[in-house]
Amino acid sequence: MQKLAVKCWADMNSDFRNGTYCRMEWIKAQCKEYFLNGGREKYDKREQDIIVKMTLSSTRLSVKTQTHENELSCTKSESQDFFEQKISVLDVGSCYNPLSIDKAFDVTAIDLVPTAEGVYQCDFLNVAIGREKILSRETREIRQLPADFFDCVVFSLLLEYLPCPSQRYVCCRNAYDVLKSGGILIIVSPDSKHVGANAGLMKSWRYALSRMGFMRIKYEKLRHIHCLVFRKCACKDVAVRWSRLQHFSEADRRYMSETKIFIPQDFQVARSEEEQKKLEYEEDDLANVFSELPFDNEPQA
Fold first, then answer.
1. Which superfamily is assigned to 87-267 in CATH?
2. How is the chain split into domains, by residue range?
3. pLDDT category, 227, cuts 50, 70, 90?
4. Contact, 185 vs 239, CB < 8 A?
5. Helices and strands: H and E segment counts in the chain
6. Which of 130-139, 207-216, 228-237 is predicted with the least confidence, judged by mean pLDDT?
7. What percent of the chain shows pLDDT beyond 70?
8. Sign of the four-CA dihedral 25, 27, 28, 34
9. Would the pLDDT of 64 be above 50?
């Protein structure tokens, strides 16, 4: 997997002029833009503006607004310290810990079955989430992750390996729990089709994650991949507000769920044994037709 990522995929996605560069470079660029180049302050302000709109007519909710103003001001003061400290990243399903080579990041790399040095063993779907990180250095295993701790969680080509939509949801919920307020979840997911082919599924991701408390702040369809960034809102109602304002078409409604994250494979219909035999027969028949062509028996050059 490491050779595939650093040689084949990197070469295939190395054209910066067309925006089709390596997914890891995209991830690093989004982290730095958000934490080091004013991105977080921008979305702090956007969130605060939405809170004000939501609470103008209620005195009781104005108290709530003040609470979130305090939370956002804390987030802003923390962001000023990023020029002096590293961005804490949890890289889930990390094959070879690629982010660790960048000095801007303090990376905790985990995988179900790690094969590279620097990657800890951890079942992210079932790991305990508590007050602190508990790990075994002897077995390179993480037994507990700290809540509200990481600046960024990365799912790079991860969710599609989970066979069940509810497992993908749990994966995202755990990311929400370990992220700081104002932290970001970065998701990279494969898709070689054009940008509109699975637009309904991408909207369903936004819907499920907004109900959880995430605001989508970035989406790009690059060559062969979807790239998304979600922000953990200081005020969950700000994220939920988006889902309440949506009017989904009949076609899109089948994807919408508050507790499931769907991928295209979930909607593939398995062929019956009879259909499979028929398909094989048609393929054999087609091969026989080509064997009748006049050049079939010509000597090979």
1. Vaccinia Virus protein VP39 (3.40.50.150)
2. 87-267
3. very high
4. no
5. 10, 10
6. 130-139
7. 73
8. positive
9. no
